[in-house]
Amino acid sequence: MRGLFYFALVLAIGIWAPPITGWAIRQGLPISVAFFIALLTLGALAWHIARWMTTGRNW
Prior knowledge:
By secondary structure, the chain is mainly alpha-helical.
């Protein structure tokens, strides 16, 4: 599951990090906070994707 998690995390960061970071910066947050929010959100998403792929069940 660890390999799938890292694969899903890299895929999610590549697709979703720019929009999430851009939104956070437009809200007036510092760039370090924007990156933290993006990584936290995408880490959770990647965990769910990896779990879904390994269990074979729906969300």
